[in-house]
Fold this protein.
Amino acid sequence: MSCKMCEKQKNIKDDPYFIMELETGYVILGWFQRFKGYTVFNCKEHGPELHNLEHSFKIKHLEEMSIVAEAISNIFKPDKMNYELLGNGCPHIHWHLYPRVKGDTPIVSSVYQLSNEELFDESTRPNEEQREELKEKIKNEIVRLLLK
Ligand SMILES: [Zn+2]
């Protein structure tokens, strides 16, 4: 069965939102920054479930996902990080890492209570300069954490 994300990952480094490659995945800046710092971590393996991954790869993937989230947390200082591994639309393992702050949604719950218009609001898409600045910050912090 073909998977859009497996296909896309062949040229992922050409994606303008691509931040960096880790051992088990690719760090991608979220297209929309309604939640400032929103970042996606795509697994190099399809999955679709965590338990389908080879054990040591899975442990490494979870560790790297945690480092990406930590980097975002250090930069954006949210009240709470959200780690979302859903895959209902695309089953390929990919994490939505959302920095959350008090009052950022009407109800204290998942970001998906917002309408698509709000989640994918073009006015929250960073311009090229902002995008490059965000990518650089996130990359530098991940590298710093990996060297610790
Ligand atoms: Zn896939």
